[in-house]
Amino acid sequence: MTRLDFMQGNVASAEGAIAAGCRFFGGYPITPSTEIAERMAARLPRVGGTFIQMEDEIASIAAVIGASWTGMKAMTATSGPGFSLMLENLGFAVMTETPLVVVDIQRGGPSTGQPTMSSQGDMLQCRYGSHGDIATIALAPASVQEMYDLTVKAFNLAERFRCPAFVMADEIVGHMRERIEIPGSVEVAKRRPLEPGRLPFAAGPDLVPGFPSFGRGYRVHVTGLTHDERGYPATNDEAVHAALVERLVTKVESSRREIADYEVMNPDADVVIVCYGAPARTVLQLAAEQAGPPVGVLRFRVVWPFPEHALGEFPNAEAFIVPEQNMGQLAREIERHTSLPVVPVPKLGGDLHTPGELARVVEEVRRR
Amino acid sequence: MTFETWLRADRLPHIWCSGCSNGTILNCTLTAVDDLGLDPDRTVFVGGIGCSSRSVGYVATDSLHTTHGRALAFATGVKLADPTLNVLVFTGDGDLAAIGGNHFIHSCRRNIDLTVVCMNNLIYGMTGGQGSPTTPPGALSTTTPYGASEPAFDLAQLAVAAGANYVARWTSYHVRELERAIRAGIETPGLSFIEVRASCPTNYGRRNRLRDVTDQIEIFRTRSMLKAKYDRLVAAGSPVPPDAIVVGEFVRRANPVMGVPP
Amino acid sequence: MLAAVILGRAAVMYDGKYAVQTQVYGPEARGGASMAAVVIDTVPILYPKVSDPDLLVIMSQEGFEKYGAGARRDARMLVDSGLVLSRPGCPYLEVPATDDARTVLKKVIVANIVMLGALVEATGVVSREAIERAVLDSVPKGTEELNLGALRQGYIRGGEAFHEAA
Q1: A59, A217, A222: residue with CB nearest B41
Q2: In a domain, B157, yes or no
Q3: C-alpha distances in angstroms, A19 versus A34, A74, A152, B237, B240?
Q4: What is the DSSP string of A232-248?
Q5: What does pTM read for this prediction?
């Protein structure tokens, strides 16, 4: 039984989080994400959850990690400058295999940049921002409906892989209001507890250990230092360090097909536009109204781990066009996985590409 | 108490130098939690980074060894998510008062129900003896080779001013008093802050003519002044020795708190 | 901004249509120029932004200069005649929304609701029933009659004839 609503994207994300079982939010106000914190402040106490406004983004993500270790589903929301501050403890969350969700409503950067204008400038920050080698799970909603649906999905992926999952939205999708159908119930992944007799950081074949929540008698030691399967520091043991980091990366990267979520239109096209997030709205408009030979559309709902196999859905492709609200962050990744020409179409300043702008690029690419 | 109840035998020996007082302070803390009958399965120790914070790795409870300065923010999340847990924090002067200073004052302001034991050895020990926010003016460290030129924080007064419900200062010489203070801290709802002056012969004493492992303990014994006496001297306008370590209970109050079960 | 949200809500919740509402705003909490746009359609809306609006509602001189002066010649515009001095190069309707709110309804804060009533009456972009229900969803308890009165005052203003382009 779905419920129709006319809702803001940020509010839809908060509602999706609650539906997914989130009961802890630690955050710090930052435009253009603040409506998520405000919604959670109003809603969580009514569903038995806890909201806390921390003293900064560093503390916010730290509190979220602490809450997650009690077994609770926890999240925060921020924008680029706050995300930068969170990177330290996001690395900690990766190292300690802490499930959590961060919603990043991207705005123009670098630095404080454009607080009220849209951007996709954090796509590489979320992938590579942490020191050390990490794998990242990042989703990219393109509508208010997807702000809800993909926030739910992010919680489920965080639980499945015991790692942070990022909803990499943008100011346009976060602040836009549109029609949404809220499902009566959603599929919710439960946290799998540590199996009796197994060491807390010893993984089975899926490389993801069960979770030893605090307060249940596991007496687990959790550290951001390189640790062995008991969780004890083993900082000078080269083999332990290599095995740990390889497992943390591989548990996500080897499941990229399972995690992948994308939409394909016109698979026989010669020219393919690859997109994610708000710019996808322009691309879909162009595909719907364009005269002449159809243009292919590959729209990612999951950007990281990068679903490189999706590029193979277009056997006749001669070029990939990549409109982004940045200077080509995902275009660079696509170049790594194809020998075909990759044409970035950067858009800075906060507005969307117009369908006309993209139509001209398609024409140009076809003339080459 | 048996030692296996609270300590991880398989993690010993510890990393601390001979003459370091962190072990004494850990011992006092564990005596306090045991005397109070806390359930090890329902108790969580949280630490940041530094010699002090390594303590959490030796305790046989759930324990969270976090990033530098952030222990209180992590502990806030643990305690708010499950207020029925007993949550204690081990930290040091660099961890708490420098990189974690903001989290410290806000935790005191929230008066969240944590017990915070700060091993204040006046120096960054783990990284080899750099100056900290509590290094006394004139003291030598690797980053104050001509003597520290900045004023030092009074951590206990800072906690009082920021709103903590229980604040005490002792030294690692005062083991009975320290045990009692930690017990009182755990029993007092809200944020309890216990500053413990700690010795670091390796990285503080060696550079400040306190090379022998007993030199700093001797200072703790001879220069500590009870808070009550200090208050009397101040009230009478009498001089207080500049190197006096004021010890005792600074505040015990019942202001509104966060993170207790409803 | 609130008027745009109410309009979008009316279209989606009570007229069974699709709508997308977006906005441009600055750091000012009050008094800065802001712009909200609504796209309404009977099918899902892909490109959400509005570049050349069919209908414009202008409620400040600054807003006219930024968004109204360049309106398409075949667009239609409603201007708050008490606040906007300029007149556009497209057909326009003068709505004294702020004056009506102050003198007729005795609450200047409902000027945007007067304007919303005028817009609905003049263009039929959503139904009267839809806008009334959406307004009631969106306003504080105890102000229902005030806001419905503002809508009705708007309907009167919206029934008047558009002026030719200036």
Answers
A1: A217
A2: yes
A3: 19, 12, 7, 64, 62
A4: -B-TT-HHHHHHHHHHH
A5: 0.97
Spatial distance between the Cα atoms of A312 and A309, rounded to a whole number of angstroms: 5
Range of the domain at B175: 3-252
Which pair of structure tokens corresponds to residue C147?
A: 């806001």
Any residues with CB less than 8 A from the CB of B123 and at least 6 apart, and which? B93, B129, B130, B131, B132, B135, B141, B200, B203, B204
What Å distances lie between residue A250 and A193, A226, A256, CA to CA?
21, 17, 10
Strand partners, B196: B119, B170
CATH number at residue B107: 3.40.50.970
A165-185 tens-digit pLDDT: 999 999 999 999 999 999 999
For chain B, how many helices (H) and strands (E)?
9, 8
CB pair distance less than 8 Å for C20 and A177: yes
Residues A128 and A80: beta-carbon distance below 8 Å: no
Q: Angle, nearest 10°, between helix axes C2-9 and C111-123?
A: 40
Helices (H), A133-214: 144-161, 171-175
Nearest to A224 among B65, B82, B84 (CB): B65
Neighbours of C133 (CB within 10 A): 17
Q: Please name each of the domains of chain A with its CATH number.
A: 1-259 (3.40.50.970), 262-367 (3.40.50.920)
Spatial separation of the C-alpha atoms in residues A101 and C81, rounded to whole Å: 49
Give the tokens for residue B248. Answer: 């005792």
Q: Which helix (H) or strand (E) holds A354?
A: none
Interfacial residues of B (vs A; Cβ cutoff 8 Å): 8, 10-11, 40-42, 44, 46, 56-57, 60-67, 70, 73-82, 84-85, 102-103, 106
Q: What is the dihedral of CA C5, C11, C12, C13, to 10 degrees?
A: 90
In order, the DSSP letters of C125-141 are SS-HHHHHHHHHHHSPT
**Nearest CA among B21, B11, B19 for reference residue B198:** B21
Task: Render pLDDT for C37-86 as a digit per residue (tens, 0 to 9).
Answer: 999 999 999 999 988 899 999 999 999 999 999 999 999 999 999 999 99
DSSP line for A84-97: HHHHHHHHHHHHHT
Q: Domain count of chain B?
A: 1
pLDDT tens per residue across span B11-58: 999 999 999 999 999 999 999 999 999 999 999 999 999 999 999 999
Verify whether the Cβ–Cβ distance B62 to A225 is below 8 Å: no
DSSP string, A30-42: -TTTHHHHHHHHH
Beta bridge partners of A271: A319
Question: Is residue B259 a part of any domain in this protein?
Answer: no
In this structure, are residues B4 and B60 in contact, taking their beta carbons and an 8 Å threshold? yes
Q: Which residues of C48-69 are buried (b: 16+ CB within 10 A; e: fewer)?
A: bbbeebebbbbbbbbbbeebbe
Which domains can be identified in chain C, with CATH numbers? 49-158 (3.40.920.10)
Maximum CA extent, chain B: 54
pLDDT of residue A317: 98
Q: Could you tell me if A2 and A184 are in contact, meaning their C-beta atoms sit under 8 angstroms apart?
A: yes
Does the distance separating the beta carbons of B70 and A222 come in below 8 Å? no
